Amino acid sequence: MSAILIYLALIGSVVAWWLSRQRLMAKPWLEVGVPVDAPGMGASGIPPARLGLWVFIAVVGALLTLFISAYLMRMHMSDDWRSLPTPPVLWFNTALLAFSSIGLHRAQMAARIGWREGIAVGLAAGGLSALAFLAGQYLAWRQVMEEGFGVATNPSSSFFYLITAVHGLHLVGGVVALGKTAYRTARGAPLAQLRLATELCATYWHFLLVAWIVLFGLLLHG
């Protein structure tokens, strides 16, 4: 419960900071000229896609925070908790996801300077590393099963499959969005669209990386 309260306080602080930057104290009746919104921008000048992504990240973050709270409470609730052996491949998977995040960051930087080849290379590196991460997670499942920990064998194993599956599903959704961005890049889409698309992909990948590091640390703790 305390983790949820901390998370909500953090989200509230971010929202308050964002609102403070939206010219709430402006006096439009004193301004000269007629304000015109840029194409694809909301009333606050923020692209709807970017705002939607941050709302989605906040919701996913709340969901993962609930999982973390439930994991910690269940671990100390009774004596039936058996520590799960951590598959060594998870360390390699973490490195793959970090490399994937770096690839998306490079694609974002390339989009800012208009380097289409750099965008394509960054997206390819990020996407292939993400797919390798998903394959590594499946391999981790196989290793845990071979150790005798099925889905319903123990509360710790149930949480392991649940947490890795939820994170993996969100990564699959990101791969779909990445594929669409790569397709637009190959089709020669305008750079303005590619800049926003690569920024959204990179932001989401950085979030997934941070979320996985937290979840991985939780699994190591358990």
**Oligomerization state of this entry?**
single chain
**How would the global form be characterised?**
elongated
- Structural class by helix and strand composition: mainly alpha
- Pick out the low-confidence regions: 15-19, 22-39
CATH third-level topology: Four Helix Bundle (Hemerythrin (Met), subunit A)
Rg to the nearest angstrom?
Answer: 21 Å
* Secondary structure: helix percent: over 70%
Secondary-structure element series = HHHHHH
Overall strand count = 0
The number of helices is 6
Organism: Neoroseomonas soli
GO molecular function: cytochrome-c oxidase activity
InterPro entries: Cyt_c/ubiquinol_Oxase_su3, Cyt_c_oxidase-like_su3, Cyt_c_oxidase_su3-like_sf, Cyt_c_oxidase_su3_a-hlx
Subcellular location: Cell membrane; Membrane
Provide structural commentary:
This protein has 222 residues and is mostly helical. It has one domain: Cytochrome c oxidase, subunit III, four-helix bundle (Four Helix Bundle (Hemerythrin (Met), subunit A)), CATH 1.20.120.80. It is built from 6 helices and no strands. The longest helix has 32 residues, at 155-186.
Task: Explain the layout of strands and helices.
Layout: H1 2-20, H2 48-75, H3 89-112, H4 116-146, H5 155-186, H6 191-221
Helix pairs in contact: 1-2, 2-5, 2-6, 3-4, 3-6, 4-5, 5-6
